[in-house]
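Figure 2 data, in text form.
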Amino acid sequence: MAVNALDRMLRARHNAFQWRCELSLVKKITLALGMACVTGLVAQTRIYLPFTPVPITGQTFVALLAGVLLGQWWGGISMVIYVGLGIAGIPWFIGWTGGISHLAGPTGGYIIGFIFAALFVGHFTDKYIKARKFPRMLGLILFANLILIYVPGLAQLYLWSNLVNGSTVNIYQVLTMGFFPFIIGDVIKSVAVAATAWAVTPKQAYNKEADRE
């Protein structure tokens, strides 16, 4: 009985990922829009620290998970939709705000990083079966989080602080504002995303994977 239940679960998991690969363009766009909406909702839960304009949010978790759930291209497209519609005026950036001014602010680089991170994670999730194992997925998620999100995020924060905010800050001060306070939380988020990815992704081919043989 337990074996049959496990087989059904594994089959359902495989069928779900195969199904989303075979969806029509309109349905894929709809799923991407749905993930963008989730990102916008999660952005409203934030915690501000007194020494930095960068808040703690759950957006990173959603952006990374978008790559896992929507896969190659479409995880990144969901974040492009989030950014693009936010710039156009949809008030789903932090604090129910929208517009280009938010993207030009201290957190704009992190938001752009969500696109790179989702594209990266989605590519490896769909392209390589071995990437869906927990240790490799954790490595990919950590790279996407700590490099692909933080590098543009810190670069934007540095430029905003020195050119817009009127402060004179060095690299260490930027790291103190935009990296050091968040590193533990983001490692925890990365482990959570990797564990979720390991649990929900099939460990057999569903999308012409490069290592399916």
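Caption note: The two ends are 31 Å apart (CA to CA).
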